[in-house]
Structures are given as structure tokens and as C-alpha cells.
Amino acid sequence: MSSGERVLKIPVEYFDNGWKKGEAVITKDAISFAGNTIRFKEIQDLERLKFEGRDALRIKKDGNYYLDFGSRQNQIFKYLAFNLKSDRFAVYFLSPATRGGVVVSDSKWEKGYLSITDEALWFLSASKQIRISIQNLGSVEKDIRTVGKKQRVVLVVTHVENGEVITSFILCPETTMDMLQEYIQTFIEKAKPKEKLSEVEEQILTMVYTGVDSVSVESILGVTTEELNRMYDRLVDLGLARVVKIRKEIELTPRGVALVSEIMKKAAR
Amino acid sequence: MPKVLIVDDTAFMRKLLRNILFSGGFDIAGEAENGKQAVEMYKQLKPDIVTMDIVMPEMNGIEALKAIKKLDPNAKVVMCTAVGQEQMVKAAIKLGAKGYIVKPFQAPKVIEELKKVAGMS
Predict the structure, then answer these.
(1) A36: domain CATH number?
(2) Which of B42, B34, B43 minimizes the C-alpha distance to B62?
(3) How far apart are the first and last CA of chain B?
(4) Can you give the CATH number for the domain in which B33 is found?
């Protein structure tokens, strides 16, 4: 959408007990469709996701609205992402820098913004609009990295995407960095489990993340199926894992995965 | 299949890596719990690949890597690191490490990285 255009009228399919065809009107500060007008500043969250068999945009304002703009989905998503009500900071970012423990070699530093809404962090640039749910944040800390050919202090953020730990780097002036670190840390603390995990429970989380099956977990830890089931129950109760098979196979929730990252860092100290 | 020497000071991580590598079709040459032991075991076992933790007592992973490369300039050593140890990883790569994996890792990624280093992919 060029800055010269004041109003964009565009076909849309919206979900209302099934996908229905309609028209969306997008102005510089609001989107209207099917009798609803949502001002950008009222949008609480925005996400691209699979919904009812479609690649859809979820717009949250009190409730959720699901929209499909077809071939213009990217364009509309980008426009909305840049216009969300947020605290926005000019930064350079590299995301993803590593994925599942391995360096992402084709990822490049981007000039853009770190945008913070009530429910997510966003890395925004001309080519990337990356949303990280606050629930999926794992850790934030400063580290020294080579950027260009210089050693620079960057903010390293770990987060979870599709069950994998991702690291992203942020480069910005140091005063902004201090503030961002504190800001992000506050979100992470909020999502942490209230109870402390035992060493064995931390090891179980790590193994589940790694992809070890329950039989091997029992063998590595030297525990019985009943003992392991009890520990699984506790991880499920703490919201760190969910049951995927009746025979107590569990997979980690994003909070569980995020915690594994922290456990590994603690072990390395 | 390539034989791997696993070097880590925590028994849990050694067991975990053993499990992953065994499932991925690698043979386990042995396990060492510090850099000094790793160098000795490298001489005896002549593994095809070494997975080397960085922070360890007695002799750390960087020192062990140096010693192993001195013994065998063609040694294939993959560093195991945690987030926030980039400086040490860079030093390791300069000293001849063939790759690195960042904890926490996922089994398929570890296998993929080691197969790459072993020249199997």
C-alpha cells in the first residue's frame, strides 16, 4: 500500500461460522469488514496462522477475527504489523541466528524495529515481520558478537518457534539495550513456573525437548514407568508439557521449551 | 559407522548424547568427563569424531581441542556449547573445530551436523 493511497478496498474472506466472502476497507488508521471497524490502535494482537484449513490472519480486538486476503495476505499482514499499537525501537536484528541448536547460515542482519505489544515482540523490517509470542520467550542477555567486522555488544533473545529454540540478536544503542533487556526479562519472569523444578525434572524436560522417548528416559534416569509418569504429571500440571499419548508420552509447551534453554545455560556456568 | 568420543563433564549430557548418536546410527567409541581424559582417550581409541563440551574441570574443551589437533591435525571435533559462548566457539573454530552445536539441541539436528562433519551428507 503506497503512502499516497488513502483507502484500499480489497476482497476478503472472513470466518463467521464458515468462510464468507466480503470486502475489506483499509484506511491509514483502521480496517473495516463485515460490519466491523477495527482501529489499528485497538488491535491487541495480530498473527498469521493456519485456521479452518486456510492461511489466515488473526486479528484480536476483544475477540478474534480471522481473515484471508488471498494473494495480498503478505502485504496486508505487513501493513497491519507496522501499524499496531506498540512501543517501537529502531534496531538492527538477526533472526533467526540459530535454530534447534544449529546456526542459520542464510540469515542476515536487518535494519528495522523491535516492536513490543501486550502479547508479542515483533522484529519488523521491509522484508521480515516476525512475531514472537510473549509466552514463547526463553531468555534475554547481553553478549559480544561479531557484526560486520567489529565486536559489538548485542542482546541475545531465545524464543521458541514450532517446538524449536531459536536465538535472535538485537543491536542498538546501549541505553536502549539496557531498557529492552529489562523489559523483555519482565515478560519472561511472568511466564515462569511458580515452583522450582528438581534436577531430575530439569533433565526430563531437556530429554523431551531433545526428542528422547519415554522408554529411553526411564533407562537414562534409572526410574520405573510409574515414577516417570508421576514426574510427567507434575510437568503437565505446571503447564510445561502436555500429554500426547495415553501411555504418558509428553511434549513440551513453549514455556517448557523456553525453560530448557535456561537450564542449559545454567549448566554451562 | 563413524565412531564418536563423547566429552562432557555431566553424566546426564553424556548419556543423552550417547542415546541420540546411537539412535542416529553412530558407534560410541567412549566417553570422557574432562579435557584431559579426552586427550588420553583420543590417543587410545582414535575416534572418527569427538563431541566436545567447552566448560569442563581439569582441562576445558578449548585446551583439549588444541591438544587433540596437535596429536592429529585431521581430527574432527564438534564443539558443544551453550547460548552465550560465541567467543569460545570462535576460538575453537580458529583452532580447527569442524562444527558446533548449541545446547539445548534436538536429536535430528545433532545427527545432521555430525553426519555433515563425517562427510556422510
Answers:
(1) 2.30.29.30
(2) B34
(3) 13
(4) 3.40.50.2300
Residues of the domain holding B49: 3-118
C-alpha to C-alpha distance for A95 and A142, rounded to whole angstroms:
16
Residue A159 belongs to some domain of the structure: yes
Question: Would you list which residues of chain A are within 8 Å, Cβ to Cβ, of chain B?
Answer: 98, 100-103, 139, 141, 143-146, 156, 158, 164-165, 167, 203, 206-207, 209-212, 216, 220, 260-261, 263-265, 267-269
DSSP-based three-state secondary structure for B107 = helix
Within a domain: A3? no
Work out how many domains chain B is built from and give that number: 1
**Residue A183 cell numbers, joined:** 523489559
| Domain region containing A246 | 199-268
Examine the predicted complex and report whether its ipTM is higher than 0.90: no
Closest Cα in chain B, distance from residue A127 (Å):
26
Q: How far is A101 from chain B (nearest CA, A)?
A: 4
Spatial CA neighbour of A57 closest among A39, A42, A41, A79: A79
Domains in chain A, number? 3
pLDDT in tens, chain A (269 residues): 544 557 889 999 999 999 999 999 999 899 999 999 999 989 988 999 999 989 999 999 888 999 999 999 999 999 999 988 888 999 999 999 888 777 787 889 999 999 998 889 999 999 999 999 988 898 899 988 888 888 899 999 999 888 788 999 999 998 999 999 999 999 888 877 777 889 999 999 999 888 888 888 998 888 998 899 999 999 998 888 888 766 566 788 888 888 887 888 777 76
pLDDT digits (tens, 9 = 90+) for A93-138: 999 988 877 778 788 999 999 999 888 999 999 999 999 998 889 8
Return phi, psi of residue A138, to 5°: -110, -55
Same-domain pairing of A203 and A160: no
Which of B11, B73, B72 shows the shortest CA–CA distance to B45?
Answer: B72
Confidence (pTM)? 0.66
